[in-house]
Amino acid sequence: MSPDVLKEKHYTVEELSEIWGISYEALRTKLLKTPGVLKFEQPRGRSKRRYVTIRVPESVARTLYQ
Questions:
Q1: Does residue 23 form part of some domain?
Q2: Which domain holds residue 21?
Q3: Across the chain, where does the E strand assignment appear?
Q4: Would you list the DSSP string of the chain?
Q5: Average pLDDT value for residue range 16-45
Q6: Does 27 score more than 90 pLDDT?
Q7: Which of these, 59, 44, 52, 66, lies nearest to 13 by C-alpha position?
Q8: Distance (Å) of CA 52 to CA 3, 20, 30, 41, 56
Q9: Which of 23, 42, 48, 63 is the most exposed place for a label (fewest CB within 10 A)?
């Protein structure tokens, strides 16, 4: 990843799903497998649920939208 990526706007899944008119869950599933998407995973606590925060750099969003 280039240092310029740090200066780009980073979108949430919710923002992109609203902009593109795509369901949140469908987009989230796609983004989890997309290179260049930032994924911050919380370690599992007592519950078995995995928490992942996703941020999408503008350059990656543009590539996906084409």
A1: yes
A2: 8-37
A3: 10-11, 38-42, 51-57
A4: --GGGGGS-EE-HHHHHHHHT--HHHHHHHHHT-TT-EEEEEPP-SS---EEEEEEEHHHHHHHH-
A5: 92
A6: yes
A7: 52
A8: 23, 21, 14, 4, 13
A9: 48
Q: Is residue 16 part of a domain?
A: yes
SS3 55: strand
**Could you tell me the two tokens for 39?**
């994924």
CA distance linking residue 59 with residue 4, whole number of Å: 10
State percent of the chain over pLDDT 90. Answer: 67
Into how many domains does the chain fold?
1
CA angle 43-33-7, nearest 5°?
Answer: 80
- Integer Cα distance of 14 and 7 in angstroms: 21
| Number of Cβ atoms within 10 Å of the Cβ of 19 | 11
Q: What is d(CA 11, CA 7) in angstroms, rounded to the nearest whole number?
A: 13
